[in-house]
């Protein structure tokens, strides 16, 4: 009756919370209950009964102590006891619990009442950054962020990783696996407790400090959320919360994803998921969200996502889940109205029309879609072809496709390409080549370093309005990620990031790290990720050359493995003199500096390739460079 604002603030009404006078108010939505009780350490586990207030809601008030203090001690354990309509008595964790702690590794959670004294509450001091007009995203998992064989912490990430992200020139941080999940190797996809920031990494206050510190560095912070499906856990999750298959989920077979062994939400109960988003925005000052598991939300049969989804008719018909589509439209419309600076990103659903079109235009309303086109192209080229067999038109066609001018975030590889059993891009290109400066550069290493830099620069600049880097890939981290699990005897060897490789000046990883920083800093100044698209001015199959312009810059790539071109003619849209802004072959990036740093190229008023001007450049083999008009380079480097 109070509108969408109140409807989406459920976290302020439901759960167990202390009031201003020290009393405790408890509210739960349990439609299948005949009676509901609360018990915990605060009353020696005796049952206190809720009263039913209608529409499946149950309420309980616990008066303050005589001295006005809260009767439920901070961090004391609580449980809800439910008598169901079929005479079962079951124990549950509140779906609105703000803090849960795992008993043992990958075992069940205990619900702890989170109500720290004011002296222990972190006070937010920094304002949110302005909504960026393009995204340079650092995708990270808190648990793998340290070099030690352990689960890392919010505190460590705040102190050690945030400064790296800032210094590398990333404008945005995308955090995975923050929302609580019982099974650590699930990458946070099997969520159990939607209002609990994972206690594996520390307390809610430490997470709040992380976000605030990032804001102080000008970094925009986003979270992964999973609204398509949830963990099947019963004792510490939402599954069978009130003793039925339904409650928060679809009842019957349609409420199960047998492929992932998870539960599927009933979007008529949207207040719960919408409230979760508002909780993280309001309480932790999170700036945006990436939505995973969209195929479960938009298709009646989630396995449909395995089809070759290239035709629009795939997305119009009885196979679509209209309540899931309606939920996504409602969510995006609400949050973009309530929080104009908030950004929502959808995972890639290839071919899905209007995914990132505004709701008012008939779209689902996301700001960006995460696009796998580039990663798929590079995987095919690196895995199936030799350099000399690469097709320039294939690269151009796959990366430039941009249906309906929707904004895309591109990447060469993300966490999925870094999971166990998958060879990372750096491992594929570099292999076991010696990365120590004390050892001679091998042909394979020279080949690998060159293509690693070229593929990242090309992907960064060519097609999208955002670029995403997975933690460690900025310096070519050699190992995949394998989170500890029973299948690997809980081994943490590959569940960490070895940042010392980038910091050690005797190791060649420093070159990739420097190049990544230089690309971000150059984009920060010239803004090629803004919505304007690249204009391809030359594609030559025999020469293995591609040239395009974007944001007033000229990007020239020679993918040929052996041929350099001393006087190579390229089209130029804007007449003038040009200098090199960025060169993958620069020796400070591990290259050979075959072009002089201060060389100047002069365009001529000679029509070439349907463009009014042309210019002769020296184009070394297997290299890429960015050219800018000379007056813009002065003072830049």
From TrEMBL:
GO terms for cellular component: cytoplasm. Keywords: Glycosyltransferase, Transferase. It comes from the Eukaryota. It catalyses: Transfers a segment of a (1->4)-alpha-D-glucan chain to a primary hydroxy group in a similar glucan chain. InterPro entries: A-amylase/branching_C, Branching_enzy, GH, GH13_cat_dom, Glyco_hydro_13_N, Glyco_hydro_b, Ig-like_fold, Ig_E-set. GO terms for molecular function: 1,4-alpha-glucan branching enzyme activity; cation binding; hydrolase activity, hydrolyzing O-glycosyl compounds. Belongs to the glycosyl hydrolase 13 family. GlgB subfamily. The lineage of its organism: Eukaryota, Metazoa, Chordata, Tunicata, Ascidiacea. It comes from Ciona savignyi. This is 1,4-alpha-glucan branching enzyme. GO terms for biological process: glycogen biosynthetic process. Its EC number is 2.4.1.18. Residues 150-500 form the Glycosyl hydrolase family 13 catalytic domain. It is an enzyme of class 2 (transferase). Gene3D superfamilies: Glycosidases (3.20.20.80), Golgi alpha-mannosidase II (2.60.40.1180), Immunoglobulins (2.60.40.10).
